[in-house]
């Protein structure tokens, strides 16, 4: 059978038709059909055709049609046009289309004796194959033969392919041939090597390579040294002694005259200079001697390199990176930062972006040097390129300190006003952090945060509202000024929900200051109680208000019932929302209605102003801070506040009582001796309960750290004031000693049967009253406990009366109830303190 695959030209075919008569009819027909098939189009024509495609679908159709023709040609074993077809396939691969079916065809081209076929075959192997595919192992023998080829160009192709996609197995098999070529005098071959494995075999030859005059050999040698140093710490230590030789090569490059062979835009071989600088950076890192040896040459490169062309900027950038990575002198580092500062004035956006990124990396170590370019960095905030603006914004925040806080915040707030929405969230967060860290005064801090909320309130972080509330609460002298500013902001715009929430909270807390006009920082405004209530009621019905904002507004109105005289109007508003379709708002209204009806005597204490909340920016215990019914996590500084009447060390004593780790303590405060300070009752109600399960006691008047779900936090799943259903639980005596008797009676709370309501009855059989009476309790981690306010802090003598106090215990796991109690009182002028453990609770109380 005659092979017609290689017969494509028409004239020789006609001349040989006389030889075809002996073939049977079918074979002759197939052969004639193949002879009439048109030749495949050239690569240039394919590129021109694809570029004419108007849509992606049209391009895909062209590619699929050509791929089908190429597959047919591969199946027919067409040797004549295999090279052309693989070249077209590589172009399609560059466009992102699959070309894996041409891998074996590349191997066939490599095995060809033609140099043009080998060139396309090796190129295809480098693009379509890698060391993870087993097909590449079939090339090992071909590459070995070509490494021993008599033509240097074929040897160069094999070396390039081996360095590009050679696996460890292939490198081990061909290491001997590569070593032979490394020792040859042909510079064309010596600069083609790249062998990442078997480094020790090539160690002796590396010293001689750096002595070569050929720049191609030098460039490849530096690349080899860089690879070896990055892969092996031993090689890194070995090659550090070559630093003087590398410095000498680099010096010759920058001091040499014009060389047409190596000149690029007036600079001698910038590619080799960049490679040497990169190798010096690796060798000088964390090494004093090597860094000292290259300081002078780095200074020469930095000062003598022309910056008018992009080639010089590339060398300067590598020089800056090298200076920053090695242990360079301080003056040299300042020079490097000044180079980056000049980059910021370049018209090329890429160079400006690179400069900003590099300055951002060095600002922590060379802060003062970077500060000199602050004005140029701030100007980059006005750049049209979004990447440059983002880097400039990050660098600007990194430059903020106590000395420039006012000026930098002015620029950043101006940027916040005009920047795109995608920047507002990050910019607002940065302003919050910088203001919190470097604020020169409380008023400036509050004004800055309010400016951010007014400008970008919808983009701020979730914790901005509680953080600002905490800031306002702690700034006692600024309450009147703050509530007046927020009230004005509320009149202007209610679309910024975080601002509206903070304003509602402040009006609820300090509405009396707003109405009284006691502001000293600026001219007070005249506002009536009805006007304030009108604004808050407007927030409740506004379509712009979120459910959270409505909750803030309703709570603010409720708090104003103890600060304003119009209680009846407030009752009407609260009762209306008792049937709201918003479950959250409805629950708040129901609880507040219960306050008006059943617990009106406790309302002034419950709705008193929040105490000062301490917060530390450093790492500390994360706890829960209550802000007007909104629970927000924050970092609370473990700082003791002055107690009301009980000693400071009571909390520590309770920890001693509890054993430290296995219980959840709840500290009950004493009743205040002065009626004016009713805030103690609020703290008594809330208690200091840690949801984490660990002990978290706090002094008498500290802020409540957390609360279980059955507390009235406005967001809880269970209301505080449930109807109490009587249950057949027998009473018990928990304590009877020194004339003081403590009895427990039990009830069940509806609708949650997991909550046991325990009422203590304290009686005194001695002849003198027990004053300053305090009852404290703690339960294990699996329980949650809440102490309500006692009826009095004086237990009458001779059993003439009792002091009652309610304890609510949440027992979701139905475990046996255990409790440790601590009793403190004063009898006949002498303080008395006693501890006891109660373990004999009736089963009905916890089952």
TrEMBL record:
<keyword id="KW-0472">Membrane</keyword>
<protein>
    <recommendedName>
        <fullName>AP-1 complex subunit gamma</fullName>
    </recommendedName>
</protein>
<dbReference type="InterPro" id="IPR017107">
    <property type="entry name" value="AP1_complex_gsu"/>
</dbReference>
<dbReference type="GO" id="GO:0006886">
    <property type="term" value="P:intracellular protein transport"/>
</dbReference>
<dbReference type="InterPro" id="IPR013041">
    <property type="entry name" value="Clathrin_app_Ig-like_sf"/>
</dbReference>
<dbReference type="InterPro" id="IPR011989">
    <property type="entry name" value="ARM-like"/>
</dbReference>
<dbReference type="Pfam" id="PF02883">
    <property type="entry name" value="Alpha_adaptinC2"/>
</dbReference>
<dbReference type="InterPro" id="IPR008152">
    <property type="entry name" value="Clathrin_a/b/g-adaptin_app_Ig"/>
</dbReference>
<dbReference type="InterPro" id="IPR016024">
    <property type="entry name" value="ARM-type_fold"/>
</dbReference>
<dbReference type="GO" id="GO:0030121">
    <property type="term" value="C:AP-1 adaptor complex"/>
</dbReference>
<feature type="domain" description="GAE">
    <location>
        <begin position="727"/>
        <end position="842"/>
    </location>
</feature>
<keyword id="KW-0813">Transport</keyword>
<dbReference type="InterPro" id="IPR008153">
    <property type="entry name" value="GAE_dom"/>
</dbReference>
<dbReference type="InterPro" id="IPR050840">
    <property type="entry name" value="Adaptor_Complx_Large_Subunit"/>
</dbReference>
<keyword id="KW-0968">Cytoplasmic vesicle</keyword>
<dbReference type="GO" id="GO:0016192">
    <property type="term" value="P:vesicle-mediated transport"/>
</dbReference>
<keyword id="KW-0333">Golgi apparatus</keyword>
<dbReference type="Pfam" id="PF01602">
    <property type="entry name" value="Adaptin_N"/>
</dbReference>
<keyword id="KW-0653">Protein transport</keyword>
<comment type="similarity">
    <text>Belongs to the adaptor complexes large subunit family.</text>
</comment>
<dbReference type="InterPro" id="IPR002553">
    <property type="entry name" value="Clathrin/coatomer_adapt-like_N"/>
</dbReference>
């Amino acid at each position: 059978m005659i092979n017609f695959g290689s017969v494509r030209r028409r004239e020789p075919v006609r001349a040989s038709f006389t030889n075809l008569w002996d073939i049977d009819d079918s074979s002759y027909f197939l052969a004639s059909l193949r002879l009439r098939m048109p030749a495949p189009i050239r690569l240039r024509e394919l590129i021109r055709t694809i570029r004419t495609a108007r849509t992606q679908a049209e391009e895909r159709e062209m590619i699929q049609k050509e791929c089908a023709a190429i597959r047919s040609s591969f199946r027919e074993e067409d040797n004549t046009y295999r090279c052309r077809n693989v070249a077209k396939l590589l172009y399609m691969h560059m466009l992102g289309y699959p070309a894996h079916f041409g891998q074996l065809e590349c191997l066939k081209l490599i095995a060809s004796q033609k140099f043009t076929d080998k060139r396309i075959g090796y190129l295809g192997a480098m693009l379509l194959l890698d060391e993870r595919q087993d097909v590449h192992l079939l090339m090992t023998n071909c590459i070995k033969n070509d490494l021993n080829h008599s033509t240097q160009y074929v040897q160069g192709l094999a070396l390039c392919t081996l360095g590009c996609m050679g696996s460890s197995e292939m490198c081990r098999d061909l290491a001997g041939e590569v070593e032979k070529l490394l020792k040859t005098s042909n510079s064309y071959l010596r600069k083609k090597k790249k062998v990442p494995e078997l480094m020790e075999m090539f160690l002796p030859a590396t010293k001689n390579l750096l002595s070569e005059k050929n720049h191609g050999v030098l460039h490849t040698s530096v690349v080899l040294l860089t690879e070896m140093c990055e892969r092996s710490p031993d090689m890194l230590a070995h090659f550090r002694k070559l630093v003087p030789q590398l410095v000498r090569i680099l010096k010759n490059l920058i001091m040499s005259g014009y060389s047409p062979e190596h000149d690029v835009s007036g600079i001698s071989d910038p590619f080799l200079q960049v490679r040497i600088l990169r190798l010096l950076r690796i060798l000088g890192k964390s090494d004093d001697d090597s860094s000292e040896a290259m300081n002078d040459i780095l200074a020469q490169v930095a000062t003598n390199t022309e910056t008018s062309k992009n080639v010089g900027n590339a060398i300067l950038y590598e020089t800056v990176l090298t200076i920053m990575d090695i242990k360079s002198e301080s003056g040299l580092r300042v020079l490097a930062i000044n180079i980056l500062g000049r980059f910021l004035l370049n018209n090329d956006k890429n160079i400006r972006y690179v400069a900003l990124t590099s300055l951002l990396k060095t600002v922590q170590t060379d802060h003062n040097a970077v500060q000199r370019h602050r004005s140029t960095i701030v100007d980059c905030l006005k750049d049209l390129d979004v990447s440059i603006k983002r880097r400039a914004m990050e660098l600007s925040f990194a430059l903020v300190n106590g000395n420039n806080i006012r000026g930098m915040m002015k620029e950043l707030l101006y940027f916040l006003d005009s920047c795109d929405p995608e920047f507002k969230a990050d910019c607002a967060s940065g302003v919050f952090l910088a203001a919190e860290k470097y604020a020169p005064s409380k008023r400036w801090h509050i004004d800055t945060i309010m400016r951010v909320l007014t400008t970008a309130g919808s983009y701020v972080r979730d914790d901005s509202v509680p953080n600002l509330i905490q800031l306002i609460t702690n700034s006692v002298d600024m309450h009147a000024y703050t509530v007046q500013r927020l009230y004005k902001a509320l009149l202007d715009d209610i679309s910024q929900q975080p601002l509206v929430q903070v304003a509602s909270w402040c009006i609820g807390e300090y509405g009396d200051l707003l109405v009284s006009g006691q502001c000293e920082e600026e001219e007070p405004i005249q506002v009536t109680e009805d006007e304030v209530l009108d604004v808050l009621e407007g927030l409740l019905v506004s379509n712009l208000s979120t459910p959270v904002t409505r909750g803030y507004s309703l709570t603010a109105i409720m708090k104003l019932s103890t600060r304003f005289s119009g209680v009846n109007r407030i009752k009407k508003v609260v009762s209306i929302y008792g049937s709201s379709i918003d479950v959250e708002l409805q629950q708040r209204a129901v609880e507040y209605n219960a306050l008006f009806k059943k617990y009106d005597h406790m309302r002034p204490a419950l709705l008193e102003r929040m105490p000062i909340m301490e917060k530390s920016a450093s790492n500390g215990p994360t706890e829960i801070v209550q802000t007007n019914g909104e629970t927000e996590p924050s970092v609370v500084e473990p700082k003791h506040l002055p107690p009301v009447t009980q000693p400071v060390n009571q909390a520590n004593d309770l920890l001693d009582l509890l054993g430290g780790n296995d219980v959840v303590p709840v500290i009950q405060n004493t009743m205040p001796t002065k009626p004016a300070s009713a805030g103690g009752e609020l703290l008594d109600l809330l208690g200091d309960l840690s949801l984490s399960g660990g002990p978290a006691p706090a002094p008498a008047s500290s802020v409540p750290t957390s609360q279980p779900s059955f507390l009235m936090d406005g967001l809880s799943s269970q209301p505080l004031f449930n109807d109490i259903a009587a249950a057949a639980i027998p009473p018990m005596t928990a304590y009877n000693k020194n004339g003081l008797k403590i009895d427990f009676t039990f009830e069940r709370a509806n609708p949650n049967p997991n909550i046991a309501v325990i009422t203590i009855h304290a009686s005194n059989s001695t002849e003198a009253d027990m004053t300053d009476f305090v009852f404290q309790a703690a339960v294990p981690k699996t329980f949650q406990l809440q102490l309500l306010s006692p009826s009095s802090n004086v237990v009458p003598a001779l059993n003439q009366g009792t002091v009652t106090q309610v304890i609510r215990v949440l027992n979701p796991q139905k475990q046996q109830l255990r409790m440790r109690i601590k009793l403190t009182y004063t009898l006949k002028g002498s303080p008395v303190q006693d501890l006891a453990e109660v373990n004999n609770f009736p089963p009905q109380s916890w089952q």
